[in-house]
Design brief:
about 120 residues, 7-stranded mixed beta sheet, 4-stranded antiparallel beta sheet, globular
Length: about 120
């Protein structure tokens, strides 16, 4: 049983920054890969970044150099630092947990409720 709760979303101007947090509960936290996805109305949920137990990371190309994923096992928390935000980054952002190190949304068994990020131009 794993539960996730996101926070940190909000309204920011283009070029600004936000840090999203996701608190994860469950005994398997340290062994899970944790990912960030985002979704806009009418579109599929899309992969953003993931991090595994040894801090290996993977990012979708369009956020490389702008977003950073990290985790703090002592706090059971995964973060997504988002810099140089663009209007097209506007979406609901979700964190998720998987027993695989994967970009596939279907590999993630547990999901948070999402947090809204809006970037104005």
């Amino acid at each position: 049983q794993v539960q996730l709760v996101e926070s940190g979303g909000g309204l920011v101007q283009a070029g600004g920054s936000l840090r999203l947090s996701c608190v994860v509960s469950g005994r398997t936290f340290s062994t899970y890969s944790l990912g960030w996805f985002r979704q806009t109305p009418g579109k599929e949920r899309e992969f953003i970044a993931t991090i595994n137990w040894s801090d290996s990371t993977d990012y979708v190309d369009f956020v490389k150099g702008r977003f950073t994923i990290s985790r703090d096992n002592a706090k059971n928390t995964v973060y997504l630092q988002m810099n140089s935000l663009k209007p097209e980054d506007t979406a609901v952002y979700y964190c998720a947990a998987s027993d695989q190190f994967s970009r596939r949304k279907y590999a993630y068994k547990y999901w948070g409720q999402g947090t809204q990020v809006t970037v104005s131009s």
